[in-house]
Amino acid sequence: MPEPVDAPSSLVVWSPELLGYDFGPGHPMAPTRLLLTMRLVRGLGLLDAPGVREVDPAPADDAALATVHDPRFVAAVREASERGVTDPLRGLGTDDDPVFPGMHEAAARIFEGSLLAASAVWKGHAEHAVNIAGGMHHAKRDAASGFCIYNDAAGAVQRLLDEGAERVAYVDLDAHHGDGVESVFWDDPRVLTFSVHQSGRTLFPGTGYPTDVGGPRAEGTAVNVALPPRSDGRAFLRAVDAVLPPVLRAFEPQAVVSQHGCDAHALDPLTDLRVGVDAQRDALQRVHALAHEVADGRWVALGGGGYAVINVVPRAWANVVAEVVHAPLDPATPLPQDWRDAVSAGAGEDAPARMGDHPVEFRPWSSGFDPADELDRAIVATRRAVFPYLGLDPLLD
Asked: Are 260 and 173 in contact (CB under 8 A)?
């Protein structure tokens, strides 16, 4: 086990080179998301907080990528990147993942950033670490998927295992199921994957059902909460409260990796959930608190999905950075006027005025189960499928 850091410290992965992950005009995964977020982060002074260190990642080498990816897939990405060779069977050259020059280096740089974050946390060089460019949770061992080329989230988990962690928890708050990470560790009892997402019956990738609980050697280590469409912040937080704390406490991870895709917001063009920035901030703070409770504070936070580029992503991810650097922001915090002016001038629409949007109070799970409520039935389906494997009572714990 690593020695804890002497004082709170944080690692922020960032470089303008990360903006090179660009599928082209009109694609939802616009690098503007990252640019506006980091400009807001700097404008709020978050990188000036005590103990904050920035790191500029180089592209990961093939050996690092091979810890979670088939070398033949890495070779195919190189071919696509250098010569424009498409390979639809490996997800390269599809509408979701079109080929672009330098794709391998751009995706490998994101991957390396998350590896650096994981190593820093495990070795005690930082208490927390964040890579907002990361969170590419759909990529499989042998294929790109859903805007994701290399799966840096899985890479971060694997790096923690390779450096000595015996149990790692992965927490996915994206509106889409974290299918790629789950598939990589499906048979690995050392990794618990938790995903709360819009039901796969109504949203890509069509997976993540309550009965998906892990492979025969790792039953109970895949945890999926499938939310009904149009679930709002109250429903989202009730689902997190009902499932995440008990499973993390039972699993007792030594490190937590979390993915903070913010596409569950009502303004997001690709999903059907209605989870505001304030509710996402609440869930973020719960993950942070649980990392301290169960893993001595060892926490790696990643970005992910999020396609409301102006009104949602910068605020949601500035909250992630703020939490990681021990400088949480009140939802009433006004956004810097120069940031608002620049955004409004560039986008031709008004920028948001403050950090929060919709304050929300939810009914905690301890208040009781309503069998007539669609959300509560979804939560109970997960608890009944998973909790017995973890030694928990589905109705009481």
From this structure: yes
| 355 neighbors 315 (Cβ within 8 angstroms) | yes
Structure tokens at 278: 């304030």
Average pLDDT of span 138-144: 98
CA dist., res. 181 & res. 397, Å (int):
27
Residues 6+ apart with CB under 8 A from 164: 1, 2, 122
Cα(292)–Cα(67) distance, integer angstroms? 28
Q: How many domains does the chain have?
A: 1
- SS3 (DSSP) at 300: strand
Assess whether 138 carries a catalytic annotation: yes
Left, alpha or beta for 49 (phi > 0: left; psi -120 to 50: alpha)? beta
Domain of residue 98, residue span? 10-390
Residue 1: inside a domain: no
CATH number at residue 248: 3.40.800.20
pLDDT digit string (tens) for 81-101? 999 999 999 999 999 999 999
Instruction: Outline where DSSP puts E strands in the chain.
Output: 10-13, 52-55, 128-131, 168-172, 191-198, 222-227, 255-259, 299-302
Q: Is residue 368 part of a domain?
A: yes
pLDDT in tens, 197-216: 999 999 999 999 999 999 99
Catalytic residue among 138, 177, 197, 288: 138
**Statement: the pTM of the whole predicted model exceeds 0.85:** yes
- The verdict on residue 395 lying in a domain is no
Q: Yes or no: say if 174 and 305 are a contact pair by the CB < 8 Å rule.
A: yes
- Based on its alpha-carbon atoms, the radius of gyration of the chain, rounded to whole angstroms, reads 19
Q: How far is CA 176 from CA 115, 228, 269, 274, 350, in A?
A: 23, 12, 13, 13, 28
Under 8 Å between Cβ of 180 and 145? yes
Q: How far is CA 202 from the centre of its chain?
A: 20
